Task: structure prediction
Amino acid sequence: MKNSFYTKFKNIIKFDEAGLRNIITSVPGAVFRCAADSNWTMEFISDGIEELTGYSPSDFINNKVRSFSSLIHPEDRKEVEEICMAAVAEKNIYNVYYRLQRQSGDYIWVHERGQGVFDENGSLLYLGGVIIDITEQKKVQREFNIQKAHFESLFTNNLDAIAYFDMNENIFNINASFTKLFGYELEEVKGKNINTVIDPFKYISDYMSPRILKGESLDWETVRYDKTGRPLNVLARGGPLKVDGKIVGGYMIYSDNTERYQANERLKQSERKLALKNKELEDFIYISSHDLRTPLVNIQGFSQRLEKLIQRLTEILDVCEVDGELKEEIAMITNEKIPKALQYIFASTDKMDTLIKSLLKISRIGKVEMDIQKIDMNQLIENIIRSIEFQLKETGSEILFEELPYCYGDKNLLNQLFSNIINNAIKYRSNNRKLIINIDGEVKKNTVIYRVKDNGRGIENRYLEKIWDVFYRIDPHNSVEGEGIGLSIVKNIVEKHYGNTWVESKADEGSIFYIELSRKEFTEWYYYGGQYNEFP
Ligand code: ADP
Result:
């Protein structure tokens, strides 16, 4: 009976020994049994140690060639020993992580898990456990930690308020800037709906979180409320949070835009005030030019009458009996001095008439109510060319233009603007070459810049600013006729379109006039109810 039990038991052990060997060879890393001494003297260590360290297992048995502890990184040795011994004292399993030097000199990171084995009296027999290479894991972990540190520093130190929310739109994390901007601590808002936290009265209807949770990344300007209920103009950006390609929540970033918004509002107000002042000035010019015309017409009329009266006086004098010397003096006055004075008066009133008419022309532009529409610039230029065909032929000039982009504006005013510039190019052409005018257009973000380039006489640098002034002409005495208001009108029209105009030029080579206009529809300011308003 005893015998058969023993045989059975032996067989079980045998079977277990074979199984155990199998397990030991298939365990990743090395299985060991060692003494709890400072060398970790090995009684047994599996073949896996060769893969880990490059040394054969027999080297370590009884420290034959080297002790196991000699391979542990000197900085880690003490900690390993402390952790192991503390666990052994408590009869607990220990886990230690340390660097192990390979035969090549490199270190690998290992994880050792083991425990003390005790006899029935509780005395420690040996330590047993496994050692696994975790270098790859460590690398990945390190990468992860670096990324985490990057992310955390960005999140914590970001000047913008950041909030993360889950699939139910509930907040699970906010940063310090969120607390600063909205006044809430994390504990107060964790688990609460991101939207209602910063819009408690549900004033807003443009919550983006549902779209974000469907995968969209968005930015928009909106208003949110801080803890005290104060409205804040914020610039919001948001997007989904994905783990393994699956959306698990979203983030929102809010930048406080209140100051910029207010500055913008102030700027708009100043613009309105300025527009109002300009309008007043235009009205003033218009009214005064208008009123000046009445006395001017009177002066012109009475001067003509005076001229006629003098002629009559001369006729009367001819038939009068006046002594010779006196007659000569009177003749001198009536035939020469008075007509000459009258000529000055006529020249001055004519000049004044032109000036007043010019002023009226300019101020009328301010008064025009624009009909803003999409402008086919190709057609507009073609129309202008058709209207000046004769002039072009007579002067032997040519206008070339590429396919021109559209813009928005008032057709009549833009016609006048481009006519003025093209007419100037013809008026100020060079006598030395055939005039060629090139027109093209370049689309910018919301605008288009048209260029009208001529090869005319050009403008010296010092006049480039002045030419836009009312009545300014570079050479008022030359043979080219003009009133000096063509470019002022151009400037006025461009400003009325909230556009831009400037010129580049080289004397004797030619000029390029730039006109920047809107590619978007816009509304015009108009004067109504004692203030400047936008057309609805
Ligand atoms: P005006 O042509 O009646 O003199 P403008 O206001 O149209 O008035 O132009 C102002 C001045 O700018 C002109 O007198 C001329 O000297 C200069 N100028 C304008 N356009 C050109 C051009 N394309 N080439 C050379 N000079 C020019």
About this structure: The first strand starts at residue 30 and ends at 34. The pocket of adenosine-5'-diphosphate is lined by residues 424-425, 427-428, 454, 456-459, 467, 472-474, 482-488, 511 (CB under 6 Å).
